[in-house]
Amino acid sequence: MRKILTAICLCFMICTTAFGAQVPESVQNFVNKDFPNTNFRFDGAIILPDNTMYLPVFPAKTQDLKEVSIKSSYPVNTTMKQKPDMIILNNNYVLLKVINTNGKKTVINMAAPPEELQTGLLPQDILLPKGLVIPESLKGIIGNVDVTVTQDTGLRINNTRNKGKKATTPVEPLNGKTFYISTGTNKNIQVIQTNSKNPEYALEQEHIINDMKAYNNEFLLVTYFDSKIMNIISLMDEKIIKQVNFDICPEQIIIDTPKKIAYITSGSNSSIYVLSLETMTLKKQLKINGMCEKFTLSEDGTKLFYVDRNTNDIWAIELDNDFLLRNIGSFPNVSKIAYDNGKIYIISRTKNRLAIVDYETLGFLAELEVCEKPVDLYAHNGELFILGAQDNIVEVLNTKDDIVTDKLFLNTNAFATNITPIENSNLIMITNARSGLYSVIDTDTKEIVKTSPIDVPVRTIVITNRVKTIK
After folding, report:
1. Residue 282 in 3-state DSSP?
2. What secondary structure does DSSP assign to 412-429, as a single string?
3. Is 292 left (phi over 0), alpha (psi -120 to 50) or beta?
4. Could you tell me the CA-to-CA distances from 77 to 36, 73, 263, 326 in Å, in that order?
5. Domain segments of the chain: what residues?
6. How confident is the model at residue 8 (pLDDT cuts 50, 70, 90)?
7. Measured between alpha carbons, how far apart are the two ends of the chain, in Å?
8. 268 phi, psi to nearest 5 deg
9. 233-283: per-residue pLDDT in tens?
10. 253: Cβ contacts below 8 Å, ≥ 6 apart
11. Which whole number is the average pLDDT over 413-422?
């Protein structure tokens, strides 16, 4: 029953040139003294908490200094706290502020730029703001960076039919947030503010979306059917900031925010890839048994579970135990797996059954009859929320005693398909892929707080804070 992954770590080389350059820690510490919580984006961009953007120019010859200070600035004798247009540091790094001049984004224009600036180079993977104009005297710092001088709209497709639509009132934890929705019938990502039921605009995509997850309210990670590329979309820019290439089509995505990593499946390649969310680069390829689907991460972040679509075998991967692989057993027509209180919970969509397995002994504990067409599970605080599509019902099971304690009828004629937790709250959202409705449930009180209209069906939904564009 117990096996070690046959080829755990196929490591990927990291480029240490300006192509994958990260702002040095000493420079980060210098900026953070005056602006804590500055975002040092993986492509090299420096974004202050108020969304002021600085472009780092990497020197031709660096000086490894522990203490970084200002050598010169413009305007002269200004400090970092004053956000000058240009700062030259004593290690020869230059920080250029993105400024707005006559409605156009640009950087400082100098007839005779200092040597540190003339001989430096921008990070070659950096995503520059839309329509940024680089002065002629600084063309040398560009290298191969893509500079779009027209005021393009990125991926955005405006919705001209949105005018005059009535607003809705979301529950408090959703107030001021944004929905990014894949409908399954349209390639594009529909963008809806939570106080409206209509898409404000869409983000254009070239393929039908397979899976989509958000990281840090800043990026969307998107996989597609029939595409070997995973796109990383910057929500601040509404542009593709990076493309991650795979040998075989990537499929499901799981974000582990505390560890700052993502797991991406590739069933046809019998692999799970580990992506660093700090650098947006692949770090490991885990070779697994079978073709992975129904991918899930345990609530405590210690285990991954998946089903082999060919054999119906269920496998667990112990992340804190050298990626130990365990065969849990075979179950028919699995629609979702959850782990709680030392037990594995498995639902079968066609048999309306919930199987319970002890994780340590792999002993079969029980099989319960549950709501018809169970399609999703959500484990939280010692309880399991089971979504039944047939009757649009959520059953609540206490994982200590394994008994159903509550039944919540959604009172909609829709075909509910997904449970999505709402971060930093005790609420979950129930969506469906056939009609425009979503319900919000309080997991503490076991009450349906609100059912709201939405103008599109939902195959996949991502909820983020409302994103401000870069200044």
Report:
1. strand
2. -SS-EEEEEE-TTSSEEE
3. beta
4. 22, 6, 47, 63
5. 18-141
6. very low
7. 55
8. -65, -20
9. 999 989 999 999 999 999 999 999 999 999 999 999 999 999 999 999 999
10. 211, 212, 213, 221, 223, 230, 262, 263, 264
11. 87
Distance CA 2, CA 313 (A): 14
Give the whole-angstrom CA distance, residue 425 versus residue 450: 15
- Among the listed residues 70, 54, 147, 34, the one whose alpha carbon sits nearest the alpha carbon of residue 108: 54
**Given this model, what pLDDT does residue 88 score?**
97
Q: Which residue has the tokens 């969304």?
A: 51
User: Considering only CA atoms, which of 199, 217, 195, 165 is closest in space to residue 450?
Assistant: 195
Burial readout 209-235 (b: 16 or more C-beta within 10 A, e: otherwise): bbbbbbbeebbbbbbbeebebbbbbbb
Tokens found for residue 399: 């994982």
- Sequence length of the chain is 471
| Contact by Cβ (8 Å): 245, 228 | yes
291: phi then psi, degrees, rounded to nearest 5: -105, 110
CA pair distance 416, 460, nearest whole angstrom: 12
Tell the residue number behind the tokens 């009535």, with chain if given: 166
Max intra-chain CA distance, the chain: 78
In this structure, which amino acid lies at residue 71? K
CA 443 – CA 351 distance, rounded (Å):
26
* Residue whose pair of structure tokens reads 């680069």 in the numeric block: 281
Strands 46-47 and 53-57: antiparallel
Q: Which pLDDT score, from 0 to 100, does residue 7 have? A: 33
List pLDDT tens digits, range 423-434.
989 999 999 887
pLDDT in tens, 171-209: 999 999 999 999 988 899 999 999 999 999 999 999 999
Q: Identify the three-state secondary structure at position 143.
A: coil
Residue 9 has pLDDT above 70, yes or no: no
* Residue 21 amino acid letter: A
CA nearest 252: which of 337, 341, 320?
Answer: 337
- Rounded Cα distance, 36 and 342, in Å: 40
Distance of alpha carbon 55 from alpha carbon 89, whole angstroms: 13
Q: What is the pLDDT of residues 334-390, one digit of tens each?
A: 999 999 999 999 999 888 899 999 999 999 999 999 999 999 999 999 999 999 998
Whole-model pTM?
0.88
Residue 64: predicted pLDDT:
80
Residue 11: how many other CB atoms lie within 10 Å:
10
Strands 189-193 and 209-215: unpaired
Q: Is the backbone peptide bond immediately before 75 cis, with ω within 30 degrees of 0?
A: yes
Residue 368 corresponds to which tokens in the numbers above? 């319960």
Average pLDDT of the chain is 90
Position 437 scores a pLDDT of: 86
- Of 15, 48, 18, the C-alpha closest to 120 is 18
Residue 165: pLDDT above 70?
no
